[in-house]
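Aim 2 progress. For Transcription factor zinc-finger domain-containing protein, the working sequence is reproduced below.
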Amino acid sequence: MYYAGICSFCEQGTLGIRICSSEKHALILCDECDAVWKSTDLEQKPTFPKQPDLPCPFCSGNLMRSPAHWASFREIYQRGWVAIVKGQTKD
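Predicted structure tokens for this construct:
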């Protein structure tokens, strides 16, 4: 998983770049508390999608069930989000 840092809300989770199940939208999702940022502006307050479904705030697609997935480097590059990538986990 490519990540953009550590969650400013829970201060524990990794902020992964996630593609929703519609495969149209990229978001930043905390892998610990499920906080969501709809853009690369991590200074904004996150939203918290309804549990357990975690609907995408753009299209209501599911953020956890396939075909939702952690973004590949290619998907991140295509969206112009490369500058926020801090690293990659070993998962």
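Helices lie at 73-78. This observation will guide construct design in the next reporting period.
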